[in-house]
Amino acid sequence: MASQGLTYALMVQGAPYSQQASHSALRFAEALPAQGHRVATVFFYHDGVYNAASMMTPPTDEPHLLERWRALHQTQQCELLVCVASAVRRGLLDHGETKRHGHPHPTLEAPFELTGLGQLMQAAHHHDRLITFAP
Amino acid sequence: MSSKSILVIVRHPPHGSSWVREGLETALVGAALGQPPTLLFSGDGVLALLAGQQRGALGQKGSAAMLEGLSLYDIEPLWYDRYSLEARGLTLDQLMSGCQPADIAGMIARHDVVMSF
Prior knowledge:
The structure holds two protein chains of two kinds.
Chain A: E1 7-12, H1 21-31, E2 38-44, H2 65-76, E3 79-83, H3 84-89, H4 95-101, E4 112-115, H5 117-126, E5 129-133
Parallel strand pairs in A: 1-2, 1-5, 2-3, 3-4
Helix pairs in contact in A: 1-2
Chain B: E1 6-10, H1 19-32, E2 38-41, H2 64-69, E3 78-80, H3 82-87, E4 99-101, H4 104-110, E5 113-116
Parallel strand pairs in B: 1-2, 1-5, 2-3, 3-4
């Protein structure tokens, strides 16, 4: 099975803690290696961009979705791409956008990256599967 | 870039959320990269195709103008699910020009990638 492993792209459109989409996407991604596959790209779009909020502070008895995404990046070397148009209008800015718009602190940090929709298209073309996780 | 075919399905109504705009933007980026996706409206998504729409109440730009410009990017026709249309008491003559009924199952089967909004 491992020799035929597939690469997956996930598109996450649901906000963390409001809807199930982020949880489902994480559980799906975390289960892939056991089947010999891996997630190569996660693309956050629509309210899914809130998954990248660097100050996310959930209660200690709830899953920490930001930490789970970071762990996924570590274990599967996947890229965590955030749609820049969806993110900036919702207040999620990396270092560069923070400076550009004159805000004091970034609200999005590595390993998350702001990118364009073209990267979603690239991921759809380059990877074996694309799965949408919508609310 | 490889030549995978992409189907974008819009399932949400045009006002009250940004789903339709974000789905259309995805389709436009596909077209800008040289591979215009197939665009299908299903469920409440068929409401986006109603002719004569104004912009919405959310301070958004509305989707009607975007839809009317898609043919410039070779995204045509605007495919719709006829059962979704009938279930909402609508007929083809109430839709904007360029709409055609689709065989949804066949359309999904023929495409390599399906993106749903």
